[in-house]
Amino acid sequence: MGRKWNNIKEKKASKDANTSRIYARFGREIYVVAKQGEPDPESNRALKVVLERAKTYNVPKAIIDRALEKARGNSDETYDELRYEGFGPNGSMVIVDALTNNVNRTASEVRAAFSKNGGNLGVSGSVAYMFDSTAVIGVEDKTEEEVLELLMEADVDVRDIIQEDDSVIVYADPEQFHAVQEAFQNAGVTEFSVAEVSMIAQNYVELPAESQPAFEKMIDALENLEDVQNVYHNVELED
């Protein structure tokens, strides 16, 4: 279970290395989610989740406000939400989520990122069944026992609670994201080390040393695409 949080940390560290890119992606996602419902997180739960994620990535308030104002305005900009599934070396599996205003461009770029780095694009459903959509919420300065107790008092069901490094990580059904977060907030927690709804692999694989550089290059190529929001995989990368 611990490797799941490690993979999210790796993804977060990679994104933190290019703040302008992650800010642009959050701006786009906030706009899309706000446009689909109400531009108010109190009445739009999906927007509330995105804003909580943005907070853990230190997205500036100005960028968030700009995206919300754009959603409130008369912008007719539209995006398609796309999911691609593919394979890397040695049976590794990859999921790519994108938001795009040009489906053909995105499909071409994602396909090229796979094929040029030893992978191949699969059909819809070929990979996703091996991943679980999971709410992942982490807090610091609490023990597993304290977290378990406060969640029990709040009558919140979760999948697992793991102490790793300086954080206690809670894994739950996506529908429980707000319930878990509210339980923490009612206990005085205001900062989260992670607040994600992620795709978590059911099983992880290790790649031979000679295959790992190509796999990492493929993941980097996918994450560097302008339209790509998130990349998930089932590989245990060496630290």
Automatic annotation (TrEMBL):
InterPro entries: Integrase-like_N, TACO1_YebC-like_2nd/3rd_dom, TACO1_YebC_N, Transcrip_reg_TACO1-like, Transcrip_reg_TACO1-like_dom3, Transcrip_reg_TACO1_YeeN, YebC-like. Keywords: Cytoplasm, DNA-binding, Transcription, Transcription regulation. Residues 3-73 form the TACO1/YebC-like N-terminal domain. This is Probable transcriptional regulatory protein BK138_05700. GO terms for molecular function: DNA binding. The keyword Metal-binding does not apply. GO terms for cellular component: cytosol. It is found in: Cytoplasm. It comes from Paenibacillus rhizosphaerae. NCBIfam families: PRK00110.1 (NF001030), PRK12378.1 (NF009044), YebC/PmpR family DNA-binding transcriptional regulator (TIGR01033). Residues 79-235 form the TACO1/YebC-like second and third domain. GO terms for biological process: regulation of DNA-templated transcription.
